[in-house]
Structures are given as C-alpha cells and as structure tokens.
Amino acid sequence: MAEKRNIFLIGPMGAGKSTIGRHLAQMLHLDFYDSDQEIESRSGADISWVFDIEGEEGFRVREARVINDLTEKQGIVLATGGGSVISKEVRNRLSARGIVVYLETTIDKQVARTQRDKRRPLLQVDEPRGVLEKLAGERNPLYEEVADLVVRTDDQSAKVVANEIIERL
Ligand code: S3P
C-alpha cells in the first residue's frame, strides 16, 4: 500500500498551528499531534516547568526527540513548536518525512493571539512584541527554507485556512 502522507505545520507562536492542524486532520481523516502536548504528556510537566528545570536547551532536546518519533508515523498532521526549526536535524527530518506547510502571519496577529496565554515561557516578559520581532528575524528564513507551501493566516478562520491548505497541497 502507498505510504500515507504527513503534513507538518511550522511557523511562529500565534500563527494558529494547533487550531488549524486540528481542523486539517479532521477534514483529511488523519491523526493530529502537537509537539508541545507530546512533550508535556511524556514529561508529566508543562512547557514552563520544562524550561524552568531544564532550560531552553533541555526543552529543545525533548522537542527534537518528540518530532523524530512522531515523524516515524504515517498519515498524521503535526503542529510543531515555533522554535523547532532552529535545529537542522529537525528541518531535515520534517522535509524527509512529509509536506511542510509554513503558516505565516503578522507580528500584530501574533501579539493579539498570544497575549492572554500564559503558557509560553519565552513571552513571559514586559515586551513580548520585541521578543516576537527578534525571533522572526532569526527564524523566518528557516521557515522559508524548509517550507513546501506557505499559507497566510491573518484574518481567515482556522477552517478557511485548512481548506486553503487542502486545495493547494
Ligand atoms: C516556542 C514555541 C512554543 C513552545 C515553546 C517555545 C518557540 O510553541 O514550543 O514555548 O520557541 O517559539 P507554539 O509555537 O506552539 O506556541
């Protein structure tokens, strides 16, 4: 039987990867995974705890391991953490194992979508916009490098974006 394809969503915090990914998986009858959730269930701790105890370095080791394991599967939609692409190993793995979709949006949208959310340790600062801008400068070229498809998620609903992805696959 032909291998079932995988779809991997990449992009910054607040791009809508998890929400859009859930819709996409439902529409395509694929299984949905979220790398942050998987890290939490494997470690028994939330992401902030992992950052506190093991630092960002420890978190990245866990993240790369989880992505490596999940991408062994077939027929999944995976929402990756926004920083996962800083690892070349992760970028290569995603490219090799599925279709990589970069969800792109504006810094304004990212700020609006993440401001009520206390789960992201990198944004627990006085000026989250500055952090998001700095990360965008470092990471946008990496998202672009690894993307098979780039989709904007500015004003459309998650369902509409999921439909657009399906049309353009
Ligand atoms: C991070 C993004 C988060 C999470 C962690 C670090 C990042 O995931 O993995 O807080 O470095 O951009 P989301 O992109 O799902 O918010």
Automatic annotation (TrEMBL):
GO terms for cellular component: cytosol. The keyword Ion transport does not apply. One of its GO terms (molecular function) is shikimate kinase activity. GO terms for biological process: amino acid biosynthetic process; aromatic amino acid family biosynthetic process; chorismate biosynthetic process. Coiled coil: none annotated. Its EC number is 2.7.1.71. Catalyzes the specific phosphorylation of the 3-hydroxyl group of shikimic acid using ATP as a cosubstrate. Transmembrane segments: none annotated. It catalyses: shikimate + ATP = 3-phosphoshikimate + ADP + H(+). Its cofactor is Mg(2+). It is an enzyme of class 2 (transferase). Its main location: cytoplasm. Mg(2+) binds at S18. It comes from Ferrimonas marina. Binds 1 Mg(2+) ion per subunit. Pfam families: SKI (PF01202). Monomer. It is found in: Cytoplasm. NCBIfam families: PRK05057.1 (NF003456). Substrate binds at D36, R60, G82, R139. This is Shikimate kinase.
